[in-house]
Amino acid sequence: MSANSDNRYHACFALRVRGALSLLVLGLIFFASYTACNHLSAAREPLPSMMFAWESAIPLLPWTIVPYCSIDLMYALALLWLPRDGGELSRLVKRLLSVQLLCVIGFLAYPLRCGLVRPELDGVFGSLFDILMGFDLPYNQAPSLHIALLVVLWHAYAAHLDRRWRWLLHGWCGLIGVSVLTTWQHHFIDVPSGALVGALSLWLWPSQARSPLALLASRRSLPSANHQLAWRYALAAAALCGLALAIGGAALWLAWPALSLLLVALNYAWLGPSGFQKDATGRLSLAATLLYAPYTLAAWLNARVWTRRRPQPDVVTDGVYLGRLPWHTMPSPTMALVDLCAELPAPSGARDYTSLGVMDLTVASPQTLRLAAETIERYRQEGPVLVCCALGVSRSTSAVAAWLLLTGRAGDVEEAITQVRRARPISVLKAHHRQALGALAGELPSANADTPT
After folding, report:
1. pLDDT below 50 — which residues of the chain?
2. 275 touches 263 (CB < 8 A)
3. Residues with active-site annotation
4. How does DSSP classify residue 143?
5. Phi, psi (5° rounding) for residue 29?
6. How far apart (Å, rounded) are the C-alpha atoms in residues 263 and 87?
7. Sheet strands side by side (includes 314-317)
8. pLDDT in the model for residue 452
9. Given this model, what pLDDT does residue 7 score?
10. Cβ neighbours for 343, distance < 8 A, ≥ 6 positions apart
11. In this predicted model, what pLDDT tens digit does every residue of 258-297 receive, in sequence order?
């Protein structure tokens, strides 16, 4: 055996040992916390049930105890077999631990009881139910820990399995998701709340971007205007949450947009554009897609309404176009895309793509404007370029104005703004945009002559 092979073997063995130890520790935490929550809830009886009338029509399917219990095997194998390195194992452990912690907080803060009484069952399936009920009690309902763990594990397995086998994974995981209802272990409200907890765990510990917790720990200073927007979104989130709890029933779905707006508030207050987890290809992470879906949909609809009379991009000069962010595909496959939008996913099919995310209703920094201008000029030399944000009226227009300044196509800020407005009359550039452009122009007393055009 060569030295390299020997090193790989020892590294793999060490990783599997770490996985086994992680499984042991997580298992102890799982059983201790879950059992403690069950007994604490039992001491607080009588407890309410949150069950919709239509749930009485859900049949009891004893055989679905098999997929229900299979998540235990998936949990163990995910730690022992899936990780390819220590970083991936650490991330998976953090996700599973976060799910456990968040669900336990939910169980203790708002304990619920399952309102369904399962009849006595015999045979193999009955024996599996007996084993399950020897550990479980009819508490620990919302959010469903089963569903939250399923989201994390489903994501982990999908990242490793070949595309040819993912249909089997998706089918089995879907069956596990349904089984929490057909085994009469959970009510419907437990399912979406558990899915949100699982998505939140994936968002807290992303595969590519920095963790939001690390961003929070850095305590970056954001402009005071951002904090004003953060308060607005936080108040809107609180209003939706209060409305959901006051009305109940189907109105509980408002908790999803409430959580979405709360995360947006965090982005404005502390996390910045990174909180949206938009990658270098313009895609939002799966977790961000799920968590921000209500906000993203509202932002998309808002963009379409405001730009309905001017949906097409406008040419500024020399192959540079300005407009709203295309939804599915680019207007032309020969066009490059410079994306100033942090909150919406970018379309596919661009010749080249750069994401310089700036949050809605905020102003790009002079550094971001310089980078945008340099990127526009580099892409322009190879073909047409579309510069965009959600509406194509502020963030992207300031980037194009910066490009006009940087390349000498405009002599000063006012001339740059005039050119942009002539090309796209719906542009909105206010005093704070002028300040950022003025700061950029102050850096360029002689840069125009040195910049190739």
Report:
1. 1, 445-453
2. yes
3. 389
4. S
5. -65, -40
6. 26
7. 314-317, 320-324, 385-389, 336-341, 353-358
8. 31
9. 73
10. 264, 276, 292, 295, 296, 299, 359, 360, 390
11. 999 999 999 999 999 999 999 999 999 999 999 999 999 9
DSSP string, 9-34: HHHHHHHHHHHHHHHHHHHHHHHHHH
Backbone CA torsion sign across 392, 396, 402, 403: negative
Confidence (pLDDT) at 24: 97
Please state the domain extents for the chain: 3-205, 220-302, 307-450
Q: Residue 421 in contact with residue 427, Cβ under 8 Å?
A: yes
* 3-state class (DSSP) for residue 320: strand
Query: Domain 307-450's class?
Result: alpha beta
- 184, 116 in Cβ contact below 8 A? yes
Cα 113–chain centre separation: 31
- CA gap 262, 260 in Å, rounded: 5
Residue 388's contacts (CB-CB under 8 Å, 6 or more residues apart) are 313, 322, 323, 324, 325, 326, 337, 338, 339, 340, 341, 396
In this prediction, residue 450 carries a pLDDT of 33
Residue 332 corresponds to which tokens in the numbers above? Answer: 């032309």
Q: What is the pLDDT of residues 337-352, one digit of tens each?
A: 999 999 999 999 999 9
pLDDT given for residue 136 in this prediction: 83
Between vectors from CA 188 to CA 185 and to CA 189, what angle results, nearest 5°?
110
Is there a contact between 420 and 401 (Cβ–Cβ < 8 Å)?
A: yes
Q: Which residues contact 305 (CB under 8 A, 6 or more apart)?
A: none
Q: Please give the pLDDT value at position 2.
A: 60
> Which of 261, 182, 270, 265 lies closest to 231 in space, CA to CA?
265
